[in-house]
Amino acid sequence: MSENKINPSTLYIIATPIGNLGDISARALATLEQVDIIACEDTRHTQKLLSAFAIKNKTISMHDHNERQRQDYIASLLQEGKSIALVSDAGTPLISDPGFHLVRHCRSLGLAVSPIPGACAAISALSVAGLPTDRFSFEGFLPSKSGARQSVLKGLAAEPRTMVFYDAPRRAIDTIKDIVETLGPQRYVVIARELTKTFETVHSDHAENLLAWLEQDPNQLKGEMVLVIEGYQADRNDISSEVVKTLKLLLAEMKPKKACAITAEIHGVKKNALYDLALSFKA
Ligand code: SAM
Q1: Which of 20, 30, 193, 219 is the most buried (most CB within 10 A)?
Q2: Three-state SS across 121-165?
Q3: Domains in the chain: boundaries
Q4: Ligand 1 pocket, residue 166 CB under 6 Å
Q5: Which of 58-67, 181-190, 235-244 has the lowest mean pLDDT?
Q6: Which atom of ligand 1 is nearest to the CA of 165?
Q7: Residue whose CA is closest, atom 26 of ligand 1?
Q8: What homologous superfamily is domain 122-229 in, according to CATH?
């Protein structure tokens, strides 16, 4: 391996494993060893990682609740010529983890910010989901309350790109129920759970089948989970029950063409996808 050179006045954004410690890179280890200070989301958590690799270095905390205060302190250390690493509890910092304000602040001061790439649960899940990856949309955490979750999902009903969400497995049944309701029972969903760990599971199916699978196996409701959802396919019958309800109500009052146009406008779905359905209801 080539020698690892640490630059002064540089903030290194270092990815750490999402489960399997073997996923840490040689460059991440060398940098964690050589920087002046490691800023951690949770110092105790990172200390375990450092101990596993016999690294002794100074750590300070930098989490969601003190990031704004910490950014001035860290920037002043960088301006003095120190090198600093930023790590989160797992995966890539800033990806649903602290660090955005710090990085923006440092960049606005003209300080160097350098990535040391590695594990990220969203990208790991995408790499095994078997759904299109040429374009995708990372949506972060789904809201924990069903109403808010449904409104996020409804807003994405016509999103054609593959969507990636973080969610807690204990909420998985409620989340999949909301997916059935808002995106339709036929929408293809991949659950990527406990990636790189002992009980790694990647399971995919149409939303309604996935729900039945989860309901009969409580073990699937443990650990950490990424949901990868197929984008809206206009040529497939993945019309949600909400869309069907609107369409039926309008069909009772007007001609199919107009009912389809209004339903498409309300729910952001393609008009053509509704037309066959409307005719079948009329029949
Ligand atoms: N920054 C991290 C990254 O790069 O993936 C994500 C941090 S976010 C606070 C934690 C969420 O990532 C978890 O709730 C879960 O949705 C997902 N996650 C983290 N590790 C995972 C794993 N081993 N398997 C599946 N999902 C994981």
Answers
A1: 193
A2: HHHHHHHHHCCCCCCEEEEEECCCCHHHHHHHHHHCCCCCCEEEE
A3: 10-119, 122-229, 241-282
A4: yes
A5: 235-244
A6: 16
A7: 225
A8: Tetrapyrrole methylase, C-terminal domain (3.30.950.10)
